[in-house]
Amino acid sequence: MARQHARTLWYDRPKYVFMEFCVEDSTDVHVLIEDHRIVFSCKNPDGVEFYNEIEFYAKVNCKDSQDKRSGRSITCFVRKWKEKVAWPRLTKEDIKLLKKVSTKGPPPAMDDLDDDSDSADATST
């Protein structure tokens, strides 16, 4: 069975880039955050494999980055190497596969991401 890319949303904030891989009820989740890229893989309950490898727009601090799994998605909190520098896109290359999301409030905090939480209202830009 061929692998698919997981639907990916991202939020740009002064200190962090937040990435959300939208795969419900994921299993075998693997997240590798390096200084210049992230590698994500998992399976859904139907056995479909998801795989994303993204080369970041700019360098990140992988040692101060983390991820959290909920029932609906896997959210990665990626610390920027240079704070307060806006990223015009997530990837080094200018590709249109990812959706940047803007919200009226801040992106979810690590403590807010549990299986029972409601998702925040978001609009794609």
From TrEMBL:
It comes from the Eukaryota. Keywords: Chaperone, Cytoplasm. The keyword Iron does not apply. The keyword Nucleotidyltransferase does not apply. SUPFAM superfamilies: HSP20-like chaperones. Residues 3-91 form the CS domain. InterPro entries: CS_dom, HSP20-like_chaperone, p23-like. This is CS domain-containing protein. The lineage of its organism: Eukaryota, Metazoa, Chordata, Craniata, Vertebrata. The gene is PTGES3L.
